[in-house]
Specification:
single chain, about 625 residues, alpha/beta, Glutamine Phosphoribosylpyrophosphate, subunit 1, domain 1, Rossmann fold, 3 domains, 8-stranded antiparallel β-sheet, 20 helices, binds fructose -6-phosphate
Length: about 625
């Protein structure tokens, strides 16, 4: 959570920092701030409780003059309520040293106690402020009087104080600091929180992720845990926490900054819903044929022999990505391959049971979700191999996994995940197809049909999206409901969970997703007259049971919307229908989730909710 930016160069520092923060706001948006220094060492600091737009306004009223280096932060509160005092950047007692931080300093109370005893005064309740004072102590220990330090000495002194401070911190941090007497250098360090440097010409950038500076440069260097960097306008030096210089390679990011803009849609979420056919197509491209062959070998070193060697597949993920994992479980089990799916935060004991023959599939859009990373480390320690299914190049997950299967969805900015989910499903269907074909579970002709069906999905997604207006009308009809129920079975049971999650997160109303077979075991009692119930009921093996579940719900007053295809529509008796194009039942989750996403979007729109930045949430959950 939280987004940090940093800049050094000849261009308008505060504009660049604020623009970067706007692009990182999905990481947290309860308060924000920037600090910048000019060549003479005067510090400019502005913070607000609230969104980056308010900060932008404040800065425009009284702009910084001549600032050439600075840092910025948009916050998702962990320690201390959202307020201006708790907003970053935080300063030391001298007011000359500023720090921005993403993560949690676990030993901050110990450090704070010692600092208080040494006479430091604190102005916030945050763990981050402690870092500024620790650096101040280190500067003192180096016998530095900020006002008196000779200019040629500021850089080595600041570097050493920062390095020593970083070594005192326990927990997770992506950290950047500026010291007013040293305007030619911004320092930054990483431990368990994402951090990337953007390399420009005569200017350099720091951010939590590349979208902050993509419009300025696509050449980037990802820092690893335990690395720090001294960023100057003409170059960047990299070090470990002992101060030993390290060599780092840059990579070029293929995303375009316009890919991260709204492109005429009212919200990123709606734009991203409409990008799902492309997300699936891009994720499948060049990786499917021949199913069971060695097509994944060149890209990620996963051979068909490796695939044959795994006894089971264990999915781990959080939130929407976990729902993709649940679809994966149903799919692999459908092929007779033992498979499990757990939320990463509840995996700790099971992780210890992982064995060599298990392939752990960690699914994460961001590749930075703390619980997922923690689970991966535990599973690896127990001997399992890990495949990352992620959308984010260079993310921590990609560096810790044995194999990486990228979803090629482009940047997902809306906090509610949509196209990333479709990309995850596409990657899982791809993987399941290779597993089943490599093991001879899918014979040649069945494998061909499976691949053909999968390749048709992007077109069927477009057909489903074409019903947006009709789905919007259904959503408007139910927009004032305070409770929603979603039910389905088998591969679509996770889609019921996902439909409920989408409503909860962007409309703030109560919604439940259930395995339809569970209804009679309790939940049916909550149905009241007029309660909206969305039932995913495609043709296939679950249809008869689903038709029965719909009858039972209707008999108790539910107002049913059935998500059906042309054939199952004849069997399910509902008040309203959304009709999907026909595909094999196994592939229906990639279509059935789309009306539920659109439904949630229009319910939230009718309620005038802040769809792309729902309250209390952040896009990337980098704390446990
Ligand atoms: C819901 C949503 C979250 C994420 C979850 C995992 O719309 O976006 O539930 O799916 O926080 O995030 P990643 O995939 O980045 O690990």
């Amino acid at each position: 959570m939280c987004g940090i930016t940093g800049y050094i160069g000849e261009n308008k520092t505060t504009d660049i920092l604020i623009d970067g923060l706007k692009r990182l706001e999905y990481r947290g948006y309860d308060s924000c701030g920037i600090a910048a220094v000019d060549a003479k060492g005067s510090l400019y600091l502005r913070r607000v409780s609230g969104r980056v737009d308010a900060l932008d306004k404040l800065v425009a009223e009284d702009p910084a003059k001549g600032a050439r280096a600075g840092v910025g932060h948009t916050r998702w509160a962990t320690h201390g309520a959202p307020s201006e005092d708790n907003a970053h950047p935080h300063t030391d007692c001298t007011g000359k040293l500023v720090v921005v931080h993403n993560g949690i300093i676990e030993n901050y109370l110990d450090l704070k106690e010692k600092l208080l005893a040494a006479g430091h005064k604190f102005k916030s309740e945050t763990d981050t402020e402690v870092i500024a004072h620790v650096i101040e102590e280190k500067l003192k220990a180096l016998n530095v009087q900020a006002a008196a330090v000779r200019s040629e000495m500021t850089e080595p002194v600041f570097f050493e104080a920062f390095r020593r401070a970083v070594n005192d911190l326990k927990g997770s941090f992506a950290l950047s600091a500026v010291w007013a007497p040293c305007p030619g250098m911004v320092l930054t360090a990483r431990m368990h929180s994402p951090l990337v440097i953007g390399l420009g010409k005569g200017e350099n950038f720091i951010a939590s992720d590349v979208s902050a500076f993509l419009k300025h440069t696509k050449r980037v260097v990802f820092l690893n845990d335990g690395e720090m960097a001294a960023v100057r306008k003409d170059g960047v030096d990299y070090y470990d926490f002992k101060g030993k210089k390290t060599a780092k390679d840059s990579v070029t990011i293929q995303w375009d900054s316009t890919m991260a803009e709204k492109g005429g849609y009212k919200h990123f979420m709606l734009k991203e819903i409409h990008e799902q056919a492309e997300a699936v197509e891009n994720t499948l491209r060049g990786r499917l044929l021949p199913l069971g062959g060695d097509v994944l070998k060149a890209e990620m070193g996963l051979t068909s022999d490796d695939i044959k060697g795994f006894a089971s597949v264990q999915f781990i993920a959080c939130g929407t990505a976990h729902h993709a994992g649940l679809v994966g479980r149903a799919l692999f089990e459908n092929f007779g391959i033992p498979s499990y799916a757990d939320v990463a935060s509840e995996f700790t004991d099971r992780a210890k049971l992982m064995r060599k023959g298990t392939l752990v599939a960690a699914i994460s859009q961001s590749g930075e979700t703390a619980d997922t990373l923690f689970a991966v480390r535990e599973a690896k320690a127990a001997g399992a191999k890990v495949i990352a299914i992620t959308n984010t190049v260079g993310s921590t997950l990609t560096r810790e996994a044995d194999y990486v299967l990228y979803t090629h969805c482009g940047p997902e900015i809306g906090v509610a995940s949509t196209k990333a989910f479709l990309g995850q499903l596409a990657a899982i269907y791809l993987l399941a197809g290779h597993f089943a074909a490599a093991r001879g579970i899918l014979k040649a002709s069945d494998a061909r049909r499976y691949a053909e069906d999968l390749l048709k999905i992007p077109r069927l997604i477009e057909e489903t999206l074409a019903q947006e207006k009709d789905i919007a009308k259904v959503a408007q009809h139910f927009a004032s409901s305070e409770h929603f129920l979603f039910i389905s079975r088998h591969v679509n049971y996770p889609i019921a969970l996902e439909g409920a999650l989408k409503i909860k997160e962007i409309s703030y109303v109560h919604a439940e997703g259930y395995a339809a077979g569970e209804m009679k075991h309790g939940p049916i009692a909550i149905i009241y007259k007029g309660m909206p119930l969305l039932a995913v009921a495609p043709s296939g093996r679950t249809l008869e049971l689903m038709a029965g579940n719909v009858e039972e719900a209707k008999a108790r007053g539910a107002d049913v919307v059935a998500i059906v295809d042309e054939d199952s529509r004849k069997r399910v008796k509902a008040g309203r229908y959304i009709t999907l194009p026909k595909t094999d039942e196994l592939f229906t989750p990639m279509l059935s989730v789309i009306p539920l996403q659109i439904f949630a979007y229009y319910v939230a729109l009718a309620k005038k909710c802040d769809i792309d930045k729902p309250r209390n949430l952040a896009k990337s959950v980098t704390v446990r």
